[in-house]
Design brief:
This protein is mainly beta. The chain has 1 helix and 11 strands.
Length: 150
């Protein structure tokens, strides 16, 4: 009985480190921050992620913005997310509207070394549309690697 209690205590103490090791929030690949996105009716933008070797998936593309975060949106601001590489380049993998105070799961994928996506206004013929935001620590697009639901 004492062994079972001691083992349970050790597992409980180790659990937080196991959880953090099981989830990695990977920011986009960039030479510096902030990364400024400006998606318009006539211009798309791109984002890519370097996934660390031996990462255990899945890889989940997520948009995270705290309440009050400055995002400029005009017109029909629905943004399509299209794969630029992987098993289905050119495939639409999601669509979203970037909003402060939200966390949006765009899609989940098998992890690869590099994962790249194009961001484009979904309905560019419906007049002028634009979405602008900056990627800073804790806000923007991220690739969650592993089980981040815990």
């Amino acid at each position: 009985m004492q062994f079972a209690t001691a083992a349970a205590t050790l597992l409980a103490l180790a659990a937080p480190s196991l959880v953090s090791a099981a989830c990695l929030e990977q920011p986009p690949s960039a030479l510096g921050f902030p990364i400024n996105y400006d998606i318009t009716s006539s211009r798309s933008d791109a984002v890519s992620f370097q996934i660390p070797p031996n990462s255990v998936g899945p890889c989940q593309l997520v948009a995270k913005f705290p309440a009050g975060y400055p995002i400029v949106s005009t017109g029909d601001d629905l943004v399509n997310v299209t794969a630029l590489d992987g098993p289905a380049p050119g495939a639409l993998v999601g669509a979203l509207r970037f909003r402060a105070g939200t966390t949006t799961v765009i899609n989940s994928f098998a992890c690869r070394d590099v994962m790249a996506y194009e961001l484009a206004i979904a309905n560019p013929t419906e007049g002028w549309s634009e979405v602008k935001f900056s990627e800073i620590q804790g806000a923007g697009l991220f690739m969650e690697v592993g089980d981040c639901s815990i």
